[in-house]
Amino acid sequence: MQEHDMSWVRTEMVLAQPAPAGVTGFSAWVRKNLIASAGDTILTIAGIALVALILPQIINWAFINAVWTGPDRTVCATVAQGGVQPDGWTGACWAFVNAKFGQFMVGRYPIEERWRPILVAIFFVALLVPMLIPKVPRKGLNAILLFFVLPIVAFILLVGGMFGLPHVETSLWGGLLVTLSLSFVGIAVSLPLGIVLALGRRSKMPIIKTLCVVFIETVRGIPLITVLFFASVMLPLFLPEGVSFDKFLRALIGVSLFAAAYMAEVVRGGLQAIPKGQYEGADSLGLGYWQKMYFIVMPQALKLVIPGIVNTFIGMFKDTSLVIIISMFDLLGIVKQNFSDPNWATAQTARSGLIFAAFVFWLFCFGMSRYSMFTERRLDTGHKR
Amino acid sequence: MASQEVLREEPSRGSFINDPKVRGIFFQALVVVLLVAGVWWIAHNVIANLTRLHIASGFGFLKGRAGFDISESAIAYSSDSTYGRAILVGFLNTVIVAIVGIITATIIGFIVGIGRLSQNWLIRKICTVYVEVFRNIPPLLVIFFWYSGVLAVLPAPRDSINLPFGSFLNQRGFYFPRAVWGDGSWLIFVALLVGIGMAWFVARKARQRQMATGQQFPVLWTALALIVGLPLLAYALSGFPLTFDYPKQSTFNLTGGFQVRPEFLSLYLALSCYTAAFIAEIVRAGIRGVSKGQTEAAGALGLRPGSILRLVVVPQAMRIVIPPLTSQYLNLTKNSSLAIAIGYPDLTATAGTVLNQTGQAVEGVVIMMVIYLAISLLTSLVMNWFNAKMALVER
């Protein structure tokens, strides 16, 4: 006997209905994000007012009224100031940046020798770009070339005095060349030094631990300017008579030591976040101290603190601008020095030069922070709690 | 028995060189020897260099006549004052700019940080642009921008920009009316102190009563009435002793009023703007660090959104925020040493001048380091105390 079955199973699905008009599209987005409530609407109006007040002025100044080329200050000065622009004119003087661009990049590096920094820059980019793209193979060789071979080649090329290259004093260096070389060396020195200091601070040997703590806390407690002062006025006193350091080298030592102390604290944070079981597991496998650190602890700890490391790099990159205090001319220093050039002294010069420098710094720092976010996502193994 | 004897025997530890303890002692001894040798070598060189340059070491130079002027000073100072006093003036200037900067940076930072979490798209984007711009350029550049890009191109004193409340802005700085306290104005300060004390007392009593009985008391309004009302009352009673000295325009300059120099103004604005971007990020991370369950649980208990924020989210976010906030305060204080680049006479600038004049490099740098370390330690102590107060009381 067949029992009649009343149950019914749908075999084909109903097509999905479009979402109600009220929750999709532009108007819904506006309603949700801009005018959700009365307070929200007031905020939006205030925000629009702010943007409407500032943005047209910025665009006008930076693009529409800007002067892009010109031989001297007259193109950027109003008639009353002895120039060609109508009275009341304000606009960026990009002509100033344009005329001084070479100086902003390499400082007072002799013009006939400028191919040398350019060549180094090409090498640097050619090695850095494949290093940064994860898919490109042979990372080990690339790293050796970038961190060991390039500095030697760059030193020979930039300083000269051998292989028939004329010697160029470091006091002639300037601009982006100084900024980049200071921060490159600073990064390359401060990371390993910071790791060693962090390990020292967590070491069980009391003397080593004390030394590391004192160094780290002292350096972190004083401003970089004081460290640079120290490097510029005290180092000569520390050395025997007749021996002297290059000023550039002194700044390098100051910046690297300073960054190393901050790096040590960042790395220590990572070391502390590694569970004890990892250390004990490595011990039980019979690994020695350095093997344990190299194979087990550091890969995990460093991965955890990538954002902190990159932040320290960014901080150091920005801090290189302080070498102006000990009269070296990095990008910011050379821009500032050129304000006093009577050929270009106008009301707009300082602003334009500084905004150009700010843009270059911003580009590097923003690039670094975005790349660190990318790396963080790439290395994320999903073990984070 | 024999087998036990064997067990009790020490296992072979291999070579004596591989014992971690021995190695530890050896390496530490090595470091100490190297350090002592290094310090001895440096000290030897320093002494040789100092005798060669005929510089007497020691801090006696602090009593010498400074002979240079300082444009801004919180205490009486002239070029006849001592080097020690010059350094003190610099120290006070550092403290002033640091305190004012910290307050402003905290206010801007909290506003921008909360703005980045706003429901409002436009506000969120504006705050993001602010943070991303200021975080990624050097503070020194911001200082120069305010100094030579903005303040230096303001009109001359003759064509000063008029601002509300009788203040003026021109290329020599910002002028505002100066308060002149007449006779009997001490009563106002006493009233203010009494008001604050009473407000604190009322708040404490109200909290105790709420804990005991659940009854609430309008603490905010009472406190406001006490803190504002009492001084006003004292002001009226003592016969309105407060007058203002307004800046007046003369042909070439402004006279009277209180002048804030462009050096201070640009340093203060730059440090505040720059540090605020970092504080904003810290605040944002702190608020996002409070788990969503907390907000939902508070909502389930029937709290209003405002109360949820005040009673549940902010106290927990503060615990995450305070430690990094402390280091930002320290950074601001340390960054105030950038003042030297625009000629604001802070500690680094005055100590640097003293150092150049006297040649006492070692002592000068030591003084700078000690003072900055002391400021850092003091700020850390205060913030650690505050942190301990705010910290979760764990059972």
Summarize the structure.
Chain A has 385 residues and is mainly alpha-helical. Chain A has helices spanning 25-33, 38-64, 94-106, 115-132, 139-159, 175-201, 206-221, 224-238, 247-273, 276-284, 289-304, 306-319, 331-339, 349-379. Chain A has 14 helices and no strands.
Class of secondary structure makeup of chain A: mainly alpha
- Please give the count of helices of chain A: 14
Shape of chain A: flat
Helix- and strand-based class of chain B? Answer: alpha+beta
Can you tell me the CATH class of the domain at 83-154 and 261-390 in chain B? Mainly Alpha
Low-confidence segments of chain B: none
What integer is the average pLDDT of chain B? 81
Task: Report the CATH superfamily of the largest domain in chain A.
Answer: MetI-like
Descriptive labels:
heterodimer; A: 385 residues; 2 domains; 14 helices; B: alpha+beta; MetI-like fold; 4-stranded antiparallel β-sheet; 8 strands; 7% strand; globular
List the helices and strands and how they pair.
The complex is a heterodimer of chains A (about 375) and B (about 400).
Chain A: H1 25-33, H2 38-64, H3 94-106, H4 115-132, H5 139-159, H6 175-201, H7 206-221, H8 224-238, H9 247-273, H10 276-284, H11 289-304, H12 306-319, H13 331-339, H14 349-379
Helix pairs in contact in A: 3-6, 3-13, 4-5, 6-7, 6-9, 6-12, 6-13, 7-9, 8-9, 9-11, 9-12, 10-11, 12-14, 13-14
Chain B: H1 2-8, H2 20-53, H3 83-115, H4 121-135, H5 139-151, E1 161-163, E2 167-170, E3 173-176, E4 178-181, H6 186-213, H7 219-237, E5 242-245, E6 248-249, E7 254-255, E8 258-260, H8 262-289, H9 292-300, H10 305-335, H11 347-358, H12 361-390
Antiparallel strand pairs in B: 1-2, 2-3, 3-8, 4-5, 6-7
Helix pairs in contact in B: 3-8, 3-11, 4-8, 5-8, 6-7, 8-10, 9-10, 10-12, 11-12
